[in-house]
Amino acid sequence: MANNNDTNSNLVPLSGIKPASLELETVRKKLSEAKGPKYWRTLEELSSQQAFGEMLEREFPRHASEWVDPVSRRNFLKLAGASMALAGLAGCTKQPLEEILPYVRQPEQLIPGKPIFYATAMPLHGHALPLVVETHEFRPTKVEGNPQHPASLGATDLFAQASILDLYDPDRSAHLTWMGEARPWGEFLSDLTRQAAAEKDKQGATLRFLTGAVTSPTFAWQMKNVLQQYPQAKWHRWDPINRDSARAGSKLAFGSYQDAVYKFDAAAVVFSLDADFLSGSWFPGFVRYARDFMRNRKLDKGEQMNRLYVAESSPSTTGGKADHRLVLRPSEVESLARYLAGKTGAGAQGGQVSDEQRKWADAVAADLLEHKGKCLVVPGEFQSPAVHALAHAMNAALGNVGQTVSYIDPVEADPVEHGQSLRELVADLNAKKVETLVIFGGNPVYNAPVDLEFDKALANLKLGVQLSAYRNETSDHVHWHVPETHYLETWSDARSYDGTATIVQPMITPLFDGRSAHEVLAIFTEQSGTSPYDLVQTYWKTQHPTADFEAWWRRALHDGVVAGSAAPAKSVTAKLGALPAPAQADPSEIEISFRPDPTIYDGRFVNNAWLQETPKPLSRNTWDNVAMISPKMAAHWGLYQLSDDNDHQSDEQRLLEIAIGGRKVKAPYWAQPGHPDNTVTLFLGYGQTRSGRVGTGTGYNAYALRAAAALYLAAGKVDVTKESMPIAVTQGHFSMEGRETVKATTLEDFIRNPKFAHENPDEEPQDTKDHPESLYPDYRYSQGDQYYKQYAWGMAIDLNSCVGCQACAVACQAENNIPVVGKEQVQRGREMQWLRIDAYYEGDPANPTLYFQPVPCMQCENAPCEPVCPVGATVHSTEGLNDMVYNRCVGTRYCSNNCPYKVRRFNFFLFSDYDTPSLKLGRNPDVTVRSRGVMEKCTYCVQRITAARIASEKDERRIKDGEIKTACQQSCPTDAITFGDINDPNSAVARRKSSPRNYQMLAELDTRPRTTYIAAVRNPNPKLEKA
Amino acid sequence: MILARTAGSWQRDGSRGKISLSMAQIFHRSANTLARASIFGLVLLLSAVGAALIQLQRSPYVTRQHIAPEQPVPFSHQHHAAGLGLDCRYCHTSVEESSFAGMPPTKTCMNCHAQIWTNEAMLRPIRYSFSSGQSIQWTRVHDLPDFVYFNHSIHIAKGVGCFSCHGQVDSMPLMYAENTLQMEWCLDCHRQPEKFLRPREEVFNMKYQQPSSEHAVDVVLQGQKKTFTSQFELGKALREEYHLRTTQDITSCSTCHR
């Protein structure tokens, strides 16, 4: 890509820097000479073919297949001999007697063995992600998006997928405690009632509430009632990942708080100012936005495609999908926004930009002006208020308001700026103006700005109450700790990004004796006996006071949407007044960005093992957070020699000591291609001390550096320490040995040559008619009577649409009972997620183009795994699946050895948890829980295929196209995955496979994979492309 | 190794006989017979042990075939099904819809036993369950391994009678498994369903008899009445009528394992 930022020009002198090593230059030269691989996964692959080659020699990544237990060879042989002798006896087991426990009175709608689906919603930072939850005998086992709700359209994100595990987490708080001692609910109730009465006498002058962002209409209504009865009480808000900048920005532009709602499908040109709208869960509505945006990149109808420009200060998946990406230091984003605002007629604001940036910005401005009313400027959540105000002004000047963006009243109830709100609370606490504080959810002692010293402020309380799902750092500083319900355990409601409300329906009674926020708040209005169900219904009766309320209520519950509750668009005009002066960056300091962690968010998911083991979309490390820097800085600091043998696998990473003011934190570095120089990105959420058996002790605590005045951007110093620690990175695992598995081109080239993915004759499938000597049986997939003409299952994955958000990988984990293995095992390359998402870079490491490629089992027709299995544990089905028979597998691992796609996973140890009772409830009863020594892999969700087939045969019909959705396909926000019957030429998958862009991975091996890929097409601006 | 190599080199010299003559006889001649006998004996013994283990694995000791386990209430299918004429589906309600045939909730028992035998000592666990809300703990009689996914509803829909797997339930005072439920037994039918298929309307009929030369069965196929005197012929016709998938299809591993 040509728009790479000249890294030399903005590199400030740094003390203690070694002379620049030449490796990066070597790499660039290599690339320009086109000797290296076109697409690369790690910097090592790019630079050092030798060390990388050594790594590839291994069947599994380093250590994966080595005997690591301290057992001598002699003992091993003894054991091996004994197990050989007993091998045949292993099958001779007598099944233990089992019991059947029928219901006493069976619920009417329940059919044992059949799942029931309920609509509900998961609130994250207050915003609802509407869901449909699968329950087996009223145990939630899997969540899917709600297709009828505009905020989901059937898709989900990885947090919603993993929330099932949170529900059953055995580490959840199970006891209501007073000063750490278990107490009954009644005692808490009487104590709080007494305190509430005392507060009432003072009009609530010393009463405070602290919540995160709230969109629940019922909670807001309850709080309004409370504040009426306690007029001097105050409601404070704190979310560590909040929308303060967006709020302040809209106030600058409109004079009042407004939420922007985007229509990405109506935009031909999108310009993102550091906005991660494709997979950032902190971006309200991103699930819907990702779908809308990708709708114009499918090239299904004609050759029209939208164009995405991203200027960003920390690499994101949105930046990876950009047609043009500009790497900026965080402080430069505002200058660029000011410059562009001047260029697009939103008012001259005179931003200082470098020549390189100007050229880029001028091209963007020209493109935006060419598409007035059909373009969109999106500001990032972590940018300054001025950037938001400028983006609103640009959208107004470009005529986009009403076309691609509209404004609504904030979805958040009683919106405030969280930073300011928390500062006021701490000031009141320190001034001893607060006696009673009720904290709903969250963990402010851990995640409040460190300079506020929230824990010390809490010492002044007379009565502190915390409602929280976990006993955490905050629990030690309050008097009462009340276990909080999971969203699947209680009645509530919430709004989505566009204001559409959903009733949150529970699926299961609280497993750990939790209480909901509604119940605790009701104590203050003397409604302590009222159930959350009654509270929610009472509120909605006020909204729908007609006689048909019962029918209306049932409809709302069934659909998971409160009809007509979307907020109406307002007509507001952005007036750009004087903007606050941009923060001046001290050139001698390094800029430090704070970002929520891509997989554990602000730290609330730290005890979720699925999310811990999900690789971060870009750095692809697990179980830790890193300090992200650019490859060039790493080379400067002598951290990282591109030509040494370091293969990034399980190796020790040197620690950086990052200092802001007097506060210091040590973090392992990660050299991320495309990261700006002289900038460090820190990820929040790790380093918790009280989170449970999964999360405690993972990562470093970036909150320890985060001050109230600099929530997302600070300046500091970085020292390279002599210490190091291992990190578990999956990026180099299961490599394709540099073969071109990703195919991509530009729109221009695609129009000229639609068959660009089939240009290399060496990479085309062999015509098997020329090879009658093949050892593979010639399966015929079109047999069967005309009534049930054979199905042939196939999948097509659109590389254009995949944004690498990882929702599919977690969905697969939830659907298929996939275990987690832990950090040490991931380091050895033994991770179990069936679906991996490979990230391939292309071009200059300073600003590469990124491609995501989800790789499930290919279900080859000529499957190399099948003939090598000595026990027939992996065999072909008549519908073309490579069936994996777990109970037959003896664990030779020959199949994995012979698999060219490296999609098989082996249970090296007993990874599945057979002991924890609560975890058993959450398993999918339709899938075997695998034991030690068993190979496993993707089966195209064969349990779903079987269920659909049985249903269709009972109805004497064929399975309809789209009736079966694999777990990955169903969760995908961008419809990147299509699954179906390729024997049916009208099926969606067959139509997609008929595209000239359709290609097979490693086609030259003639495995004839059923999973194929649709090659990526980018739409770069021809004016920028030639630089 | 060394001896063999030495012998080999002498053989080339042609002096092998001389050496062997000079060596003393260590074993008596009968050792040859003994050696032969013990080699064959060992093979026989190992095969016998193997065969015995296979038989053990198939024996009722392991499969619990024909063994009625102890139950909290000695429920008699003979009395309820044959004696009182209750349909299978009165208790096993989900058999046509779900993978699981369904175990009757205590409420189903109490539908009658709130009126009759209300003080019967044998039924005390039922009454206790109903009043306390605790489930009755039945011991599972037909227990497939956890890696096998059997679905009742599709078998019913394709004309496999209850009898084919569960035997003459209406003559069992105490419930036991009629068959081994081992994979070879499953495959026996999956490889040749014709041997067992019956008309759908006869699925729950415990008195149904397969057609034979002495006993003809009338079936309406595609609106036409046909008479069969051979199960194989009937099975073939029903297989077509009910659109059973091919034998290769229903013997694919993922049909039952996933």
What low-confidence regions of chain A span 5 or more consecutive residues with pLDDT below 50?
Answer: 1-22, 53-67, 641-650
DSSP helix fraction of chain B: 40-55%
Taking all residues together, what is the mean pLDDT of chain B?
88
Estimate what percentage of residues of chain A fall within beta strands: 15-25%
Biggest β-sheet description of chain A? 7 strands, mixed
Number of helices of chain A: 30
Query: What is the general shape of chain A?
Result: globular
State the separation between the terminal residues of chain B, measured CA to CA: 51 Å
Taken in chain order, the helices and strands of chain B follow as HHHHHHHHEHHHEEHH
Widest sheet, order of strands of chain B: 2-3
Structural class of chain A comes to: alpha/beta
Rg of chain B, please? 30 Å
By helix and strand content of chain B, what is the structural category?
mainly alpha
Strand order of the largest sheet of chain A: 7-6-18-17-16-8-9
Radius of gyration of chain A: 29 Å
- Ranges of chain B where pLDDT stays below 50 over 5 or more residues in a row are 1-19
